[in-house]
Design brief:
elongated; disordered N terminus; four-stranded antiparallel sheet; 4 domains; 254 residues; alpha+beta
């Protein structure tokens, strides 16, 4: 006679089935949680990217003076003044209005004038350095001026001597020409007279040019002398306070 099974025991099968179902449920929930976490991270990243993409605002004023806010500048506002704002409405970047053609031309003219002034200042500084390097004192400038003017005067003297010489020859030719009947003088005399007249005109022009050159040279040396005096006086004025202090310090020692 077989033994009767106790009610509710089922030989432990029910408990094992329940445990198996519980284990499978826990495994399924854990697996679902593992897949949910990457998806959540991706969503956060996408949300951040979307938020950042629309985080910038632009504030600009149209031609009628109306203020506009937009996430991008329209084509007709690109050349106008605008302000870039962050999400909190704080200005992070300002762009000035593009200059008009007249403003651009005026700016270019001002820049050109500045370049010319800088160039003139650089040349003046270079002349000052050359002046101080070339002469020891003002007497040296006077001597250089005398020598330069003497060279020019020598050229003028030579030209005037030549003028006197060909003028004498011209007088001789005119005397020969007068010995002939009107219009009967040889062609060689007329040709030489024409050549002498042209040469006299050239020499007279040369003398006038040299006289102008002499005046310009004299004025340049005089200006150099004045500038040299100014530079030396400036150096002396800059050094005098130091000399005074040194003298006072030396006196206080006794």
């Amino acid at each position: 006679m077989s033994a009767l099974a106790r009610p509710g025991s089922n030989d432990g099968t029910a408990e094992r089935d329940a445990a198996d179902r519980g284990g499978r449920s826990s495994t399924s929930e854990a697996s679902g949680g593992m897949w949910l976490l990457p998806a959540l991270l991706v969503g956060i990243v996408l949300f951040t990217m979307a938020t950042s993409a629309h985080a910038t605002l632009y504030k600009w004023v149209d031609q009628h003076g109306l203020v506009h806010y937009s996430d991008r500048l329209p084509p007709d506002a690109v050349d106008r003044a605008s302000t870039q704002l962050n999400r909190e409405g704080i200005a992070v970047k300002k762009v000035g209005q593009a200059p008009t053609a007249a403003e651009l031309q005026a700016r270019q003219a001002a820049e050109k004038q500045k370049r010319e002034l800088d160039r003139e200042r650089m040349l003046a500084e270079r002349r000052d350095r050359a002046l101080l390097d070339s002469y020891t004192n003002e007497s040296d400038i006077d001597l250089a001026k005398t020598r330069a003017l003497a060279t020019i005067e020598g050229q003028i003297t030579s030209a005037q001597a030549y003028i006197a010489q060909i003028a004498k020859r011209r007088g001789e030719l005119q005397a020969k020409q007068a010995s002939y009947a009107p219009g009967a003088a040889p062609a060689s005399i007329r040709s030489e007279l024409a050549s002498i007249d042209a040469d006299l005109a050239r020499q007279a022009e040369f003398v006038v040019g040299k006289q102008k050159e002499a005046a310009a040279v004299a004025a340049r040396y005089d200006a150099d002398k004045r500038r040299f005096h100014e530079l030396k006086s400036s150096v002396a004025d800059d050094a005098s306070p130091n000399a005074t202090r040194l003298s006072a310090a030396g006196t206080s020692q006794y």
